[in-house]
Amino acid sequence: MFTLTQLTSFLAVAEELHFTRAAQRLRMTQPPLSRQIRQLENDLGVRLLNRTNKSVQLTPAGRAFLIEARGILRQSEHAALAVRQVSTGEAGTITIGFTAVGAYSALGDILRTARAAVPRAEIVLREMVTRDQLAALANNTLDLGLVRPSATAPDMLSRPAVRETLLAALPTNHPLTTRPGPLRVTDFEGQELLMYSPTEARYFHELLITIFRTARVTPVYSQYLSQVHSILALVNCGLGIALVPEAAAQLRYADIVFKPITLPAPEPVELDLVWRGTNDNPSLRTLLHHLPARP
């Protein structure tokens, strides 16, 4: 099988149609160049050049092979460039996980940063709950996760991505919609509340339980759901009220009113960036370097 050195030698001779000029172009002497061409012809089993003392001409097989040789050399150059770009973090693939509501808060900033910092990298997005993202990070099928704060393995690194407040999501005909100013936690005493699942949405479940317990408030939990958009769909149907992260207000529903709430902590909802410290993806390192640090 021919080598790239043989192809480069053949290309120079085919374009110059002169062995001496081709050798000068390649910065070598003529004898080794002639040997490269002879070896290439022997490997292919065809004559590529007609040589005389006065001229060098391409044979029909040589003209056909010239097209292929140029293509192979271009591809080899592209392959070398691609490998260098991946090794420096300029290209490659970054697989990013995100929660449904995370797509309305931090994901946009991450994608904009990725387009600027690693424009040649392919970004693969996967919508997953926090628990599934952590499992995917552990088995190296995910590079970066946008997750709710939770227990992680020792080799996981994290930093805050977003902090936001909670809003009350109310059916348009609910009495609390007419309450002036921000609502208070005590306003939810005895209210029929759509609650987060203690297993699939553990973070929000424990957050709300803590808020209500601290305020000595006891809502009536009518349904337990795992996804914010499912909770909002039921609020829109008039089946209860809910507390949702601020980013969820971007989900427009005709029959929902969002109202602010006075909370002990003004921004209790957190979303973290998580990745494995042993992840050796250069593109991920480049992206993390350019992502702004959050307080």
Q: In one word, what is the shape?
A: rod-shaped
Contiguous helical run count: 9
How would a crystallographer describe the biggest sheet?
5 strands, mixed
Named at the architecture level, the CATH assignment of the largest domain is 3-Layer(aba) Sandwich
Number of domains: 3
Mean pLDDT: 89
- First CA to last CA: what distance? 59 Å
Roughly what percent helix?
25-40%
Q: What's the CATH H-level homologous superfamily of the largest domain?
A: Periplasmic binding protein-like II
Give me the secondary-structure category: alpha/beta
Overall strand count: 13
What's the CATH C level of the largest domain? Alpha Beta
Oligomer: single chain
Features:
39% helix, 295 residues, 9 helices, 3 domains, 5-stranded mixed sheet, Arc Repressor Mutant, subunit A, 4-stranded mixed sheet, alpha/beta, 25% strand, D-Maltodextrin-Binding Protein, domain 2
How would you describe what is shown here?
This protein has 295 residues and is of the alpha/beta class. The protein has 3 domains: 4-87, Winged helix-like DNA-binding domain superfamily/Winged helix DNA-binding domain (Arc Repressor Mutant, subunit A, Orthogonal Bundle); 91-163 and 270-290, D-Maltodextrin-Binding Protein, domain 2; 166-266, Periplasmic binding protein-like II (D-Maltodextrin-Binding Protein, domain 2, 3-Layer(aba) Sandwich), CATH 3.40.190.10. The chain is built from 9 helices and 13 strands. Helix 7 links the parallel strand 9 (192-196) and strand 10. The chain starts with a helix and ends in a 5-residue tail after the last helix. 32% of the residues are buried.
